[in-house]
Design brief:
globular; 3 helices; single chain; alpha+beta; 74 residues; 3-stranded antiparallel β-sheet
């Protein structure tokens, strides 16, 4: 089982619940607003979670003003 920090646990739990019915696209600021963290805190952890999360697949999808992340159930 993968070890997560408390903030990573909150992010993964939110993403897992949000994509339970299929893939979705997220921006760090929207995740942050939903779980009470800053966009910087979320954005700094998403690349790490993309590599170590077995619960959801996180993929860097696009970059406009901020990075969009494609998240799918594993």
């Amino acid at each position: 089982m993968t070890e997560y920090t408390e903030e990573e646990k909150r992010i993964v739990a939110y993403l897992r619940e949000s994509v339970s019915c299929g893939e979705r696209y997220f921006r760090a600021k929207n995740i942050a607003e939903a779980i009470g963290l800053s966009a910087k805190q979320v954005g700094a952890r998403l690349p790490t979670l993309a590599e170590k999360s077995d619960e959801v697949d996180i993929e860097k999808w696009g970059r406009a003003r901020s990075t969009t992340w494609r998240v799918t159930p594993s």
